[in-house]
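Bumping my old thread because nobody answered last time. Still need a sequence for this structure:
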């Protein structure tokens, strides 16, 4: 992404006291609660709703985002929690080759030309025995939530082979109501894991 994208996001965050919800993603809470805390990477972390929840559960979190404004809010909320913030493009950060026990991509909708490479790089960042959580707006939510470009939105078919090297344990659609009384939105959810490395024979 370019510096223009960073400036756009900074303006969006600076225009309001809070741009996104405070509560962590409900499916991340469900799926990650059963894991032993380790290292986590939150890509496009924004104001940090998922990073903060993970850190409170004992995860050591690296939160990556283009926006210094958003990450400043995350640092202020984190206090002494184990969260490190990195102002960077996600693809540039992933090129560093680090690995994590949990990689999170929540409502990240790359351009179609960039999607395969970004998701493959995110999958490659999952350590043996680790997991990847992805959730994003479904094509069926076009015009109600997410980017206005339908090509950026998700379907299960678009994600079916998008996480090379990982075993996809769950790939499904999810309905949720962002506000009481509102019509439900449709999301796509993926939960995948990298098999643990086989032990060398004694």
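Sorry it took so long. Here it is:
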């Amino acid at each position: 992404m370019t510096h223009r994208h960073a400036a756009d996001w900074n303006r969006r965050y600076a225009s309001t006291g809070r741009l996104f919800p405070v509560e962590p993603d409900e499916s991340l809470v469900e799926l990650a609660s059963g894991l032993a805390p380790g290292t986590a990477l939150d890509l496009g972390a924004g104001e940090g709703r998922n990073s903060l929840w993970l850190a409170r559960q004992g995860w050591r979190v690296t939160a990556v985002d283009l926006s210094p404004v958003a990450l400043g809010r995350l640092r202020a909320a984190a206090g002494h929690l184990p969260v490190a913030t990195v102002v960077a493009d996600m693809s540039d950060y992933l090129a560093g080759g680090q690995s994590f026990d949990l990689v999170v991509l929540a409502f990240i909708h790359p351009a179609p030309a960039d999607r395969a490479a970004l998701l493959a790089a995110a999958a490659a960042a999952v350590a043996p025995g680790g997991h990847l959580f992805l959730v994003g707006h479904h094509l069926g939510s076009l015009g109600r939530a997410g980017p206005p470009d339908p090509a950026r939105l998700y379907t299960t078919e678009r994600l079916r082979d998008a996480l090379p090297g990982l075993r996809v344990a769950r790939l499904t659609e999810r309905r949720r109501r962002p506000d009481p009384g509102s019509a439900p939105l449709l999301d796509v959810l993926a939960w995948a894991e990298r098999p643990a490395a086989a032990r060398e024979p004694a």
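The longest strand covers residues 126-137. Let me know if any region looks off to you.
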